[in-house]
Amino acid sequence: MIERYSREEMSSKWTMQAKYQAWMDVEKAVVKAWNRLGLIPDEDAKKIVDNAGFSIERIDEIEAITRHDLIAFTTSVSETLGEESRWFHYGMTSSDTVDTAVALQMKSSLELIIKDVKMIMESIKKRAMEHKMTLMVGRSHGIHGEPITFGLVLAVWYDEMARHLENLEQTLDVISVGQVSGAMGNFAHAPLELEEYTCEELGLKPAPASNQVIQRDRYARLATALALMASSIEKFAVQVRHWQRTEVYECEEYFAKGQKGSSAMPHKRNPILTENITGLARMIRAYAIPAMENVALWHERDISHSSTERFWLPDSFITTDFMLHRMNNVIANLTVYPENMMKNLNLTGGLVFSQRVLLELPLKGVSREDAYRIVQRNAMKVWEEIQQGKPTTNEKGESLYLNHLLADEELRASLSEEAIRECFNYDYYTKNVDKIFDRVFRK
């Protein structure tokens, strides 16, 4: 994690102070559970809960000798207690503390990510409603296809984020588990009720079965959920970058007063935010690999997962949180140019209406093969004239393609002038927008 790509609200959940506090929360919950079970006397339990403390500096000093951070922690805490310290970490293994504490951190962090997702969905919805009927050209393979609306593009984004929201909420349930099952997960030194009471105190569920650790498929589920969502956010960002290209210029990241785009070229207005998001998504996806590789630990546990989790867990959460807020800012402040969208829609001289003409001919008894030949023949003429630099409309504002179709005798034998002109009606392409919006936004 680097400070440049972090927000305090999330990064504060992954500081050393937060880590040790989570450990302390787990240990105190276990003390309360033992007290509830009748092992730890009320007075001792109260002293531990009220007085147990830790010093990061002292933990570091002890760890330099023990080379074991959990033992360094328990030793540091014990130094703040009296005889009651004998009950601290009683019947537990290190992973009972660490994994349950990490579950608390993951749960809190994922709840914030879910909040972020809801935020960005609201921004997408607002812009979608604003541009529900804003015409633009739809592209496949980067080439003009048919008329769509900008609102429909954003509706697709919203629907995609809704799936991520559902996945993240399910993942939250998967990762919100704790364990106090002992060194081999067999509860040899503590009853199952200890784990149940501890998790109840912490707002977690007991893992139905564990060995020395909580199983890492849960962690991998989290990492892949974040990576998948990051890929969608990247997709949105890449689309904005394409729209901002000079020769397209249909949308643009907000360019602030005093902002600079290039040290060499003063005219530049670059899509730096979405480029940044594209790069961050690569990092989040990369962290899914070690998370999945951590699933295959030796027997009841080895420690190969530990070093990677010190990287990928905080970094994935912190980077995802930053990325979502940055993309939300892009969407909320995106400058949209409907005039340029319309200009680009007309760039190919009416070719975007070719399928409508194609579908009308079979209704008049023309075979699909003949219909395709007629429609494509005229389309190729338009492409050639565009390549020659001819205007895409005549003096009446009629498109090149319309003119060629009206002059085609074979086509006119099946379609009237009125029928051909009707094929160039934009309303045909927007007639179902309201229904699509109802499906997307009224779920």
Describe this structure in a few short sentences.
By secondary structure, the chain is mainly alpha-helical. The chain is built from 19 helices and six strands.
What characteristics describe this protein?
single chain; 443 residues; mainly alpha; Fumarase C, Chain B, domain 1; Fumarase C, Chain A, domain 2; Ribonucleotide Reductase Protein R1, domain 1; 3 domains; two-stranded antiparallel ribbon; two-stranded parallel ribbon; 19 helices
Count up the helices.
19
Question: Strands of the biggest beta sheet: in what spatial order?
Answer: 1-2
Percent of residues in helices: 55-70%
For this structure, what is the CATH homologous superfamily of the largest domain? Fumarase/aspartase (Central domain)
Taken in chain order, the helices and strands follow as: HHHHHHEEHEHEHEHHEHHHHHHHH
Q: What separation lies between the terminal Cα atoms?
A: 37 Å
* Largest beta-sheet details: 2 strands, antiparallel
Report what the structure shows.
- The protein is built from 19 helices and 6 strands.
- The protein has 443 residues and is mainly alpha-helical.
- It folds into 3 domains: 3-87, Fumarase/aspartase (N-terminal domain) (Fumarase C, Chain B, domain 1), CATH 1.10.275.10; 94-135 and 148-342, Fumarase/aspartase (Central domain) (Fumarase C, Chain A, domain 2, Up-down Bundle), CATH 1.20.200.10; 351-423, Orthogonal Bundle (Ribonucleotide Reductase Protein R1, domain 1), CATH 1.10.40.30.
- Strands 1-2 form a two-stranded antiparallel sheet.
- Strand 3 (177-178), helix 8 (192-202) and strand 4 form a beta-alpha-beta unit.
- The mean pLDDT is 95.
